[in-house]
Design a protein that fits this description.
Length: 291
């Protein structure tokens, strides 16, 4: 199992330099990855926040080994051809360390609705599938065109291509126990499910991976990404006991939740450096697998 931090780039981490500094410290502490939330507006509190692609570019030039990515990018609110350019640039800048996490995106009423974008889940799902198809074509470096329900594109060729082959890995997120996101994930490179009220259990992970196996047609490696992980960083034996059942269930990536709210803040609290200090402390303590 690999271990990463899952960071909302809000508050003091709305500064790309702060994200880059934390990424450098995470790499030194033994973490395998850094994944950023991707929002325009998260709540009407209007927290300071940054663009995740810019922040990850800053992190890329400050690290050598750390895998970098978004978890998750609401692809339906972005132009796929713009995302294609951004992700290839990040992949090449990082030396082939970028992973793209995608999904419908929540909370829709703010991230979409505040800007007049369509909040309907069915429409967003259609856009997500079309957008992923476009990304795959544009990453290939071949001539591709598209005539779909939501996107139209004349034949174009995008160069350069990603460093990673056959493509940049794509992890697909969605709320458990919804089945459509799991079927979508089966067509790509990993699944990053979540639960609206709590962490997923190892038993639920077994159900998810069994279902995905029934719909997967590729024999290529596939990642199972647990994105709500919470360990202490101080109780090594206890942390190992927390993580072990997930590895046994088939989880390949443990993403440690370092959001401020995990450490007791309320949604309405201002994200001051003093209140978000536990984020850095948990990162410096290292991953649960470093015992």
């Amino acid at each position: 199992m690999k271990f990463a931090i899952h960071l909302p780039a809000f508050g003091e981490y709305a500064e790309p330099r702060a994200v880059a500094d934390l990424a450098r410290e995470a790499e030194r502490a033994g973490w395998d990855g850094l994944f950023l939330w991707d929002h325009v507006i998260f709540t009407p509190n209007f927290y300071p926040m940054t663009d995740p692609f810019i922040a990850l570019a800053a992190a890329a030039v400050q690290t050598d080994r750390l895998r970098l990515g978004t978890l998750l990018t609401p692809l339906p609110r972005r132009r796929p051809w713009k995302v294609a350019r951004e992700t290839v640039a990040l992949d090449r800048l990082s030396g082939g360390r970028f992973i793209l996490g995608v999904g419908l995106g929540d909370p829709a009423q703010w991230d979409y609705g505040f800007f007049g974008e369509d909040e309907d889940a069915r429409v967003r799902a259609e856009k997500l599938d079309e957008g992923l198809a476009l990304l795959g074509g544009l990453w290939s470096g071949e001539l591709v065109g598209h005539e779909g329900t939501h996107y139209r594109m004349h034949e174009v060729r995008f160069q350069p291509t990603p460093l990673q082959r056959p493509r940049i890995p794509v992890w697909v997120g969605g709320w458990y126990p919804n089945k459509p996101p799991m079927r979508r994930a089966a067509r790509w490179d990993g699944v990053a499910p979540g639960h609206l009220e709590r962490q997923l259990t190892p038993e639920e992970w077994r159900e998810i991976l069994t279902y995905i196996a029934q719909h997967r047609t590729s024999s290529e490696p596939f990642d199972a990404v647990h994105s709500g992980g919470q360990t202490t960083g101080t109780d090594r034996a206890g942390d190992a006991a927390t993580v072990r059942p997930y590895g046994e269930a088939g989880v390949t990536w443990w993403l440690e939740d370092v959001s401020p709210w995990r450490f007791g803040l309320r949604w309405e609290d201002e994200l001051t450096p003093a209140r978000t200090r536990p984020i850095r402390e948990r990162v410096l303590a290292g991953p649960p697998g470093s015992a």
